[in-house]
Amino acid sequence: MNLIDVYLTGGKSIFGEKESPLEAHEVYCDNCDNCSLYKNKQCLNHCPPFISPHCKLGSVVETKGYTSRAQKYSTFKSKYTSNDKYNCLTYPNTNNLAIIGDTVFIYLIYAKIALNKETNNYYTIMSNRVSESSYVPINSFNIDLIYNIASFKPEALLGGVITDYNDKIIPDFLLSLSKLMPAIYKEFITKYPEWNLAPNYIGKVAYVNSLKSGTKFIEHNTEWLYDGEYVISENMDLGLSTPWWQHNIDSENIVKIKVNDKMTITINDNSIVDENTKLK
């Protein structure tokens, strides 16, 4: 398999807890050239957050290292940080759907996809674990399975339907489907127009430089204007503690910040999103 990513975990805790030995993680994959996540420099096997899914189609080699008190600590750390694959990928912010080689990766909280061996068809069932993901051959991922996923009604342990599945999980899943597989999404909503839901981007994170010039948005309880190069806020309260305030009571306080490639905002208005908006 091809080495596609290297990262380290462990070390000194920022919370003052006992230092743990460094541990190196080398991520290998032979499907990377045909992976929708890898094309965006993302990987499900790059330091998956707690209870988040990982990818079983790749592999991770873990090597136990040392604490900073050990003589071999620096040599061990340098061996991996000097690798040209070190931290070259990130864990995806949207992890519910991906194409990996000839397989469709699906992550649905509360549900998973199973194979009916008698009919050789895939269908949706309750998931036993929060982080349980599914892998479906791409030639079996069709509009009937998508409808089965969308119309599934997971039941709570104490009775009743888990409404978050249909209210939150499925709209996000269909949004990912529309971006990743627009042709099959169009075929799906043509046959099932009731599932042509208006996309909801509220709460998602977008890169500022992908917004339209002239876009106004709220961030940190302040209204900003993106002019295509800068974000600008007028009449910003500098705070009574600053000496500038005492001498400029009647003046306007204008803040202007140059936008870079890493600046993001949390979307709180669907109208600011268009086809060029890049989500993190």
Name some characteristics of this structure.
280 residues; alpha+beta; four-stranded antiparallel sheet; three-stranded antiparallel sheet
In short:
This protein is an alpha+beta fold. It has helices spanning about 75-80, 145-150, 165-180, 180-190, 245; strands at about 1-10, 20-30, 60-65, 95-100, 105, 110-115, 120-125, 135, 205, 215-220, 220-225, 230-235, 255-260, 265.
3D structure, described in words:
The chain is 18% helix and 27% strand. It has 280 residues and is of the alpha+beta class. A four-stranded antiparallel β-sheet has the order 10-11-12-13, with no helix packed on it. It has a three-stranded antiparallel β-sheet with strand order 1-2-3, covered by helices on one side. Helix 2 packs across helix 4 and helix 3 crosses helix 4 (182-191).
